[in-house]
Fold these 3 entries.
Entry 1:
Amino acid sequence: MAAQTPAYSGFVHAGGGTGLALIQLGAIIPGLLPTLALLAVFLLPLVALALIAAVLAAPPAGAWMLLARRRRRRRAGPGDRSG
């Protein structure tokens, strides 16, 4: 019979501990849990939109900077290596 390795559940324990800490803080600080819920509802979509915009804008911006560098080097001439 082969020995089975135990499954790793560290992330589950970390999530449980974080949830327990948030519940206890919510009992101490009135309005904490609703405030965190509203922040999550409004901020998570904004973060997702910002990530999507960054992924879509990065290739054209990189190409633009590469072309600008090439143009700058061509204008500077063969003797000038400052840029």
Entry 2:
Amino acid sequence: MAVVRERLQPAERKPGIRCGERCSVSISGEPLLLRWAESFLFAGCSALLLLVARIFPHYWYFSLFALIPFLYKIIISTPGESLRLGFLLGLSLFGASLGHSLVAAPFTCLPTLIAGTALFSLFGWAAGWARKHWGFSPFVVSVLWVGLEMGLLRFGFVGGMLVESGTASQLLHSLVGLLGFIAASALIVLLNSFLILAVIKTLEMVSRRGKAVEENQSRRGAISAWSPFTEKVYLVPEDRAPPFCS
């Protein structure tokens, strides 16, 4: 078998690809397309929730859990994939927000789209890098979001991405007036991060319980398959002693 493997390996090698290295793109490019589609699904869900909270002030509470799909995907992604998630989130959010203005005056709105997308891409990569080296921390994510808000402020985005629509809520309006929109946004991101941790812990508990149920069922199946054999072995009538003459 060793000789056969040595003969087959050179024929299986492709030029430009190291032996044992997994190719990220197939001939048709389908895996890469699927990865982008999956990232867009998570990032697009967060962008949609943020847009609903910004466009419809009565649904301001959507911002309290809008980042959950985005952060969940970052937890299970590499920094490179997190960069892609941030890019898609920023592109979806600003592309939909600018919308008509981007079509009517592309040269005026294009720098805004590029700057916002770049900042969200940087935020996604930084969150993924921090998760890889230190683990997922809600406080680290909230600090990174503060840096994102400050960067957006320098480019003219006033009001905060998460609390702009929150003025419809008296509680959030008071919180913004007391702490400022950057600190209020950090608290909302902190809440999103703790919620995603709660979701992950719940999924882990459900998975463990499911595995325990499967193990119990397999044990019961083994016992039920073993019991007829035991009946045949242990239920054989014993030999009786000969009767004594009275």
Entry 3:
Amino acid sequence: MWIPPWLSTVGSAEEIVEWKAISRSYRGRDLYERRLEFVRRMRERHPDMPLSFEEELAAGAERLRKDPALRRAQGLDPIESRMKEVES
């Protein structure tokens, strides 16, 4: 079973077993929430662990939110805002 890099970096054997148990449970709509809760607990125990995929995604979204030039470069800026720049 695949183990996330952040978990293999800092996780104990028990924590890895817990992750595998969560990942194997395909039932329930709360699987994603259980994974996020596990990552939160791991972050509390190991503040210096590498970012999880979800944390990297959130950090990237925050960078895009704060940087209009980056949004434009990524093609995520609405056309209306570009039209305002051209009209000025």
